[in-house]
Design a protein that fits this description.
The complex is a heterodimer of chains A (262) and B (326). Chain A is an alpha/beta fold and 262 residues long. Chain A has helices at residues 42-49, 72-78, 94-100, 115-127, 143-157, 173-188, 200-206, 224-227, 230-237; strands at 2-10, 19-27, 31-35, 57-62, 65-66, 79-82, 161-165, 192-196, 209-214, 217-222, 241-245, 252-256. Chain A contains nine helices and twelve strands. Chain B has one domain: ABC transporter involved in vitamin B12 uptake, BtuC, CATH 1.10.3470.10. Chain B has a two-stranded antiparallel ribbon. A two-stranded antiparallel sheet of chain B has the order 3-4. The longest helix of chain B is centred in the first third of the chain and has 33 residues, at 40-72. Classes of the chains: A alpha/beta (262), B mainly alpha (326). Chains A and B meet through helix 2, strand 6 and helix 3 of A and helix 9 and helix 10 of B.
């Protein structure tokens, strides 16, 4: 199984291309981080992979099937998506939110969750360390806790293709590391994981591959050590980027250069 | 489930007790034994029972639609009337009441009811047209367009009242205040046809509403056909409201109070919430109408309009619920 993206182009208004001629193949078992400045097309790429929009040009295929042509529930059984904006709807417990992730698997509109569904919910809560939160309401959680709850819902949905838009943005360092380790474990378990992030160091530390996007085009794609190099990052973020060897082991560290002057 | 059981018990108790009370005291058992006969008890009961049935279905339908619109519009103050269905229906009814040439009936519906239904349905079709963006509805624009149509229909109603024969104003006022008074059980004939399909559609969408509550994007990635579901909910909810407005006139506050009260007892998941809201709204309206029937004798001999009573009782009750939630 793999995700195949061919000559992908997309425009919201029919005029400006947000993505332009993108080619990419990600196999099941891999974690790919999508990196780029604001407005480079990261979220749009994930939305297209989630089948939320049909491509303007080219195609997005999962396991050979064109994703935007699949029926909604069929697609939702294979593809789970964690968006950037996570609503805090009053009154829903975390467990209810996670159970809602099983919606595509229900046989009819009033079906109750079966044994497999219940197991998927418990497993998702355990994997995201959210079991202790399950009775709390989603609007009473901190941003990071809410992110874990929604990640649990995405895991409970059970697709082989997992798409995450800034999943660690609101997490403290411990939960950032735990979250990215979890994504890596999920990839090792056979899922194909795409994660849009601004955190270059986490992308360098945990991803199998990195895609650098610049104005909707692929600037570079490959293993983090080959892609997250100073020349590439300067093209994306300007000259104030410093890339060096990680002082505690292999890999790289990416830092802003010290700000000088007033 | 305990919340739903409590609401069901309450609604059942109201339904069982309501026939005993009214402007006239009757021997209920004697009336039931002679149902359809000529005794006073039987004749009063033959008016009272269909009225209770109408009240229960009207209140329940307004409550369920209020609940659906609150989720669809993602606005906890939304009611079945937010999108202008009530005022559009009232405008249609007033047109029928203004011109004597329009009096009469069309199949099981009187022209007043027919005009109310057609105008309310027209409001929905216009809204669908105004707020549609591709396959989906822009819920923000839907709300704005609905409120604008409300103002427009309100102004047209005032103009019609200004221009109409003063002798007809009393009938208009009476209609405007909402009433469950019906002449016979035959007047309930359109009820199943107008209400049940819409209610069935709304109940079948309960789990879809759970998804839509979290936004269109998340719902779409869980497999919900967002555009189709939004339009189905808008049309079904509005048709149910249009039918209630056509049969009873605009009865306020049930569609706001009942969903919030039901949420406190059964939570926010729509599968228990929609039936719970229906039972709460139905029970509340029957209770209010029973009080209106019974209090009638304390006043001028005329019945207190139930639409006035639901707002007078409902508003303090709603405020009390708000205070308790702090």
């Amino acid at each position: 199984m793999n995700l195949q993206i061919e000559r992908l182009g997309f425009s919201y208004d029919g005029d400006r291309l947000v993505l332009d001629g993108l080619d990419l193949v990600v196999d099941a078992g891999q974690l790919l981080c999508v990196v780029g400045p604001n407005g480079s097309g990261k979220s749009t790429l994930l939305a297209l992979c989630a089948g939320l929009f049909a491509p303007s040009t080219g195609s997005v295929r999962w396991d050979g099937g064109e994703l935007s042509a699949w029926k909604g529930t069929e697609r939702a059984r294979h593809v789970a998506f964690l968006p950037q904006q996570l609503p805090a709807i009053a009154g829903h417990s975390v467990e209810e939110v996670v159970r809602l992730g099983r919606f595509p698997h229900l046989a009819h509109p009033w079906a109750r969750l079966g044994r497999l569904d219940e197991e998927a919910v418990v497993s998702a809560l355990e994997q995201t360390e959210a079991m202790g939160l399950r009775a709390r309401t989603i609007d009473s959680l901190s941003g990071g806790e809410r992110q874990r709850a929604y990640l649990a819902a995405a895991l409970a949905q059970g697709g082989e293709l997992l798409l995450l838009d800034e999943p660690t943005a609101a997490l403290d360092l411990h939960h950032q590391i735990a979250g990215m380790r979890l994504l890596r474990r999920l990839a090792r378990g056979g899922r194909c994981v795409l994660c849009a992030t601004h955190d270059l160091n986490l992308a360098a530390a945990v991803s199998d591959r990195v895609l650098l996007l610049s104005d909707g085009k692929c600037l570079a794609e490959g293993p983090p050590d080959e892609v997250l190099i100073e020349s590439n990052l300067r093209q994306l973020y300007g000259d104030d980027v410093w890339v060096g060897p990680h002082p505690a082991g292999t890999g790289r560290v990416i830092l802003p250069r010290p700000v000088e002057g007033p | 489930m305990r919340g739903l059981a409590a609401i069901s018990s309450g609604a059942l108790a109201v339904l069982l007790l309501a026939p005993w009370f009214g402007a006239e005291r009757i021997d209920l058992l004697a009336g039931l034994r002679d149902f359809g006969g000529e005794s006073v008890d039987a004749r009063i009961l033959s008016l009272r029972l269909p009225r209770i049935l109408l009240g229960f279905f009207a209140g329940g339908s307004l409550a369920i639609t209020g609940c659906v619109f609150q989720t669809l519009l993602r606005n906890s103050l939304a009611t079945p009337y937010t999108l202008g269905v009530s005022f559009a229906g009232t405008l249609g009814a007033f047109l029928a009441l203004s011109f004597s040439s329009l009096s009469g009936s069309f199949g099981p519906l009187r022209t007043v009811e027919l005009f109310a239904f057609v105008f309310a349905a027209g409001d929905v079709l216009l809204l669908d047209r105004l707020a549609r963006r591709g396959q989906r509805l822009d819920t923000h624009e839907l709300l704005l367009a609905g409120v604008t149509l409300n103002f427009f229909c309100g102004a047209a109603i005032l103009l019609l009242r200004f221009l109409t024969d003063p002798l007809r104003l009393r009938a208009m006022d009476h209609w405007m205040m909402g009433s469950l008074q019906i002449g016979s059980v035959r007047e309930l004939a359109p009820l199943p046809l107008l209400l049940l399909p819409g209610l069935w559609i709304l109940l079948r969408q309960a789990r879809v509403l759970d998804q839509l509550a979290f936004g269109e994007q998340l719902a779409a990635t869980r497999g919900v056909d967002v555009g189709k579901s939004q339009r189905l909910l808008l049309v079904a909810g509005s048709m149910v409201t249009a039918a209630v407005v056509a049969l009873t006139g605009p009865i306020g506050f049930v569609g706001l109070l009942a969903p919030h009260a039901a949420r406190r007892l059964v939570g926010v998941m729509h599968l228990p919430l929609l039936p719970a809201a229906f039972l709460t709204g139905g029970g509340f309206l029957v209770l209010a109408d029973t009080a209106a029937r019974s209090l009638g004798l304390l006043g001028r001999g005329a019945e207190l309009p139930v639409g006035v009573l639901t707002a007078l009782v409902g508003a303090p009750l709603f405020l009390w619920l708000l205070l308790r939630s702090r």
